[in-house]
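Both lines are quoted verbatim for reference:

——
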Amino acid sequence: SLPEMEGPLECFPNGDSEQYAVAFNIKDKVQDMGRYIARWPGHGAFWYVMAKCGFLKDDPITCGNISISPSAFCASLLGSQRQFFYDENERDIALIRIDVRGTLKGTPKRVIWQMIDRRDLKTGFTAMQRTVGFPVSIGAQMILEGKISQKGIIGPMDVPFEPFMQELERRGLKATRTEEIWDGDVNT
């Protein structure tokens, strides 16, 4: 449970973290690393049932005289219902958190880098739109301005970190960084 999130969260593995250990050149130094997605309680149970019932499959099925994939049907059905839209003053929330624990020069340390964003009620942009769209836009602008000169797919280490973070802050996305002595307990 994170106090900043106003309640408990469920976390699920979300992809391969090994590629990041390789990219950050820490693969031989890391004992345990994971990527997770955090959701409100009940999210996993709901989608588990939906998946088990076949609603997330892409292979088309015949319904009457039309053919449609269950995932497209599910997206259309849920996306057409007003109850799944945000009310005028309702806000979504996005959490990006990096929690690193280990020993640095013999001292157990924990560093937490975190960004929490909520829907901007003035623009209507959701937290998801802001935390995905703004970084993409900033990256494209950095390429156009020559601040990123590499061609093709590049990794996060190839982006000038400080200028990138300054641009995020200009758009209202601010990350916090805390560092503390770690008690060595991997469960806290």
Remarks:
- The CA atoms of residues 161 and 171 lie 16 Å apart.
- The first strand starts at residue 10 and ends at 13.
- The first helix runs from residue 18 to 23.
- The mean pLDDT is 92.
